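Hypothesis: this fold can be encoded by more than one sequence.
Test: take the structure tokens below, design a sequence, compare later.
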């Protein structure tokens, strides 16, 4: 069992036994080199003041590293040859433990976990630390910018199903969590996700959900969790039911507790538009293949000429 999977298993098992519940609100934290960051961990416990809270970090292809623990008083610790590099604290009033990491450097990049003492370790979900250079500009809006695509009429009529697609662009860092629910529902729906793709200095990601005929009347919500969401609130992107989609209902992006609605794109609806999109993709594919074939022919011709010239020169020398 891989290390993060083992952490998840032990956390769920311990929670299932009615023990502590741990939550790390931030899935990622970005800090500037030589500066400081604070990672937090909220604990649901009846006796938080007496809990021993440990902090760990995990780097790719390495084992879990124990950084230290906090009982009552702040616990500063040296790390990497630097004095007071990290310091763990507890706030009994809010049942929160924090880890302060100072003098940031690239080597500090890792996923940081909080955990409690006991016969079984209960870990939080983890917070990934990203360290950027001082000259890296993060002043702009680095939250995910959504574009939504609603099911096409062709797909609904042909397959009696509809695919809702959410494209998220121009966000930083690349740590993002996307999941789907029915509106006013609690169950997380099974969805598909594309890989995170780097575009210049930012990132993009696809997520889509296909619903069957029996679920076409349900409104859906795509929930996006990201470090740079406005006011730290998860984006909730509302997708109308397919029946409403047929009637041309506008799409909205909702931010809970914020009286603001942002209208965004609706998808292909007419069959001719769907056919045009398909033809465009097909033409792009054939154009790429043609250019690839052209490059291959040039490569063969140049290779032939070079080899022939080498052979002629070698024959001349031997004569």
């Amino acid at each position: 069992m891989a290390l993060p999977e083992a952490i998840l298993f032990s956390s769920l098992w311990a929670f299932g036994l009615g023990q502590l519940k741990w939550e790390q609100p931030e899935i990622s934290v970005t800090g500037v080199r030589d500066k400081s960051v604070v990672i937090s961990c909220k604990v649901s416990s009846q006796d938080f003041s007496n809990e021993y809270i440990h902090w760990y970090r995990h780097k790719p292809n390495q084992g879990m590293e124990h950084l230290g623990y906090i009982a009552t008083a702040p616990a500063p610790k040296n790390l990497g040859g630097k004095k007071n590099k990290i310091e763990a604290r507890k706030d009994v009033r809010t049942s929160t433990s924090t880890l302060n990491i100072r003098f940031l450097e690239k080597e500090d990049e890792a996923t940081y976990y909080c955990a409690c003492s006991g016969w079984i370790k209960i870990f939080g979900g983890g917070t990934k630390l990203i360290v950027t250079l001082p000259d890296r500009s993060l002043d702009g809006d680095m939250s995910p910018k959504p574009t939504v695509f609603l099911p096409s009429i062709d797909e609904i009529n042909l397959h009696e199903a509809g695919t809702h697609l959410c494209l998220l662009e121009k966000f930083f860092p690349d740590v993002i969590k996307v999941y789907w629910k029915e509106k006013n529902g609690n169950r997380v729906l099974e969805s598909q996700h594309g890989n995170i793709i780097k575009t210049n200095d930012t990132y993009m990601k696809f997520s889509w959900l296909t619903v069957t005929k029996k679920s076409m009347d349900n409104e859906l919500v795509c929930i996006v969790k990201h470090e740079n969401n406005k006011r730290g609130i998860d984006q909730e992107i509302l997708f109308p039911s397919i029946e409403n989609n047929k009637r041309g209902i506008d799409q909205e992006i909702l931010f809970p507790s914020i009286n603001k609605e942002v209208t965004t794109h609706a998808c292909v609806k007419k069959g001719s538009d769907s056919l045009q999109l398909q033809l465009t993709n097909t033409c792009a594919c054939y154009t790429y293949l043609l250019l690839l074939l052209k490059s291959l022919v040039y490569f063969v011709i140049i290779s032939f000429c070079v080899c022939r010239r080498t052979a002629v020169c070698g024959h001349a020398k031997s004569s």
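The two ends are 69 Å apart (CA to CA). The CA atoms of residues 187 and 268 lie 28 Å apart.
Hypothesis status: open.
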